[in-house]
Design a protein that fits this description.
- With about 425 residues, the chain is mostly helical.
- Helix content is about 75%, strand content about 0%.
- Helix 9 packs across helix 19.
- The radius of gyration is 22 Å and the shape is globular.
Length: about 425
């Protein structure tokens, strides 16, 4: 019992430090895993190192390196520029267009953070130019990016698939993606229509707005150069190999990135600088620490505590609420998912039933609905890109929305994955 308790203390200490300090929780997780493994279990260092998720590391490295190339050489910016042409002069369609573009880029592999990081500066500038409420634009950009968090070739999707495979939920990547997309469509468009989007869609633009819109459309209509077309060809080729021929994501993405480097279609050093090493270290370090929890019985102890709060019907709502509350202050993909997904099989056993996939969906969706908050990366990117005199108000609006999503996410998971399923 003592090793299990100590391993749980190590896990929650790492999570607390990720909330209240800037210490890299992944490096801390590696250190704690080594201490617990060596001192409590007597695991030889070589065996402990084998629990490092090398396949996951390679996949995250390859994907982020590849999309770093596409971002640095201007390909993704060209896509964003051409997408704004699709509005046809309708001001109210502009936030919806950015939602769709975020979905496209995120699904292609840029992921939630990558797509929002690219689009937020453009979207918030367009909102300021056209007098679109910043909250509406930020909500649609952040929800659009987060809707594709679980794309099978996006970093968060790869992380979730890795942990879901360990609990017997392999080959559900596209299902997970679709459920997350649906939830963000419901809440994103619901919020957009409820807080002013309906008026934007209904009211015709003023003469001044129409003139500024035409200027924006002209400025963003930039031609595709050879490097942009070739990069898009490489990206679509990667998608074909993964989706049609089921090649492994990591080596294909890394190979595509190296191809762009060898052909000088991108700046390799600049692309390497975009790789989120800190996030990759967090994911891999927490994965090693979770392997120690499995050996010591820490996951079993955590599962027992969760079972006291749940029944087979209420478990999805409980998981959605708890993961949302934790995700509001820590990383969804690198802290919350590794902590909660491994508990699902044991929880089902303890409460006498339940659907493992429904609980996994609840963890994934509950953890991500709150990420529009400015305390999370997506919300903070939108606030940073907003006009200076509107940042304080946007911060408060996004914070209120994010906190509301803790409860709304729990209710959504209870209804969709508890009552309806």
């Amino acid at each position: 019992m003592l090793p299990a308790i100590l391993s749980l203390v190590a896990l929650f200490s790492a999570i607390a430090l990720s909330i209240f300090s800037r210490l890299n929780v992944g490096l801390l997780g590696l250190g704690l895993a080594y201490l617990l493994g060596a001192l409590l279990l007597g695991i030889p260092p070589r065996e402990l190192y084998s629990s490092f998720p090398s396949s996951l590391f390679l996949t995250l490295l390859g994907l982020t390196f590849l999309f770093g190339h596409a971002r640095v050489n201007g390909t993704l910016d060209r896509l964003a520029g051409w997408a704004v042409q699709l509005t046809g002069g309708r001001i109210g369609l502009m936030p919806i267009t950015f939602f769709g573009l975020a979905v496209l880029l995120g699904t292609m592999g840029a992921g939630n953070i990558g797509s929002v990081a690219l689009l937020a500066p453009i979207a918030m500038e367009v909102a300021a130019e056209l007098s679109i409420p910043p909250f509406l634009m930020a909500l649609m950009v952040a929800c659009g990016g987060n809707a594709t968090a679980f794309s099978p070739i996006a970093p968060t999707g790869v992380i979730a698939a890795s942990f879901m495979q360990r609990i017997g939920l392999a080959d559900h990547a596209w299902h997970t993606y679709a459920q997350c997309l649906l939830a963000h469509v419901v809440f994103g468009f619901g919020g957009y229509l409820l807080f002013g989007g309906l008026r934007l869609l209904r009211d015709p633009p003023s003469a001044e707005q129409s003139e500024r819109l035409q200027q924006i459309l002209t400025q963003r209509r930039q031609p595709l150069a050879l490097r942009h077309a070739a990069t898009l060809l490489v990206l679509f080729g990667m998608l074909l190999l993964i989706a049609r021929f089921r090649w492994d994501v990591g080596p294909v993405a890394l190979g595509a990135a190296l191809l762009l480097s060898l052909t000088r279609l991108g700046d390799e050093r600049a692309a390497l600088a975009t790789i989120p090493w800190e996030t990759i270290l967090i994911v891999c370090g927490m994965s090693v620490l979770m392997s120690i929890l499995e050996r010591t019985g820490g996951i079993e102890l955590c599962t027992r505590a969760l079972s006291h709060l749940s029944t087979p019907r209420t478990a999805p709502g409980v998981m959605g609420l708890l993961t949302g509350a934790l995700s509001a202050y820590s990383s969804s993909s690198s802290v919350v998912l590794p902590a909660f997904l491994p508990t699902i099989p044991g929880l089902i056993h303890k409460i006498g039933g339940g659907n493992a996939l429904a609980l996994a969906d609840s963890v994934n969706i509950g953890a991500h609905l709150v990420d529009v908050s400015p305390l999370s990366t997506l919300g903070s990117l939108c606030v940073a890109a907003c006009a200076r005199d509107q940042r304080d108000r946007l911060y408060r609006q996004l914070l209120a929305w994010g906190m509301a999503m803790i409860v709304a996410g729990g209710v959504y998971c209870f209804v969709v994955f508890g009552l309806l399923r």
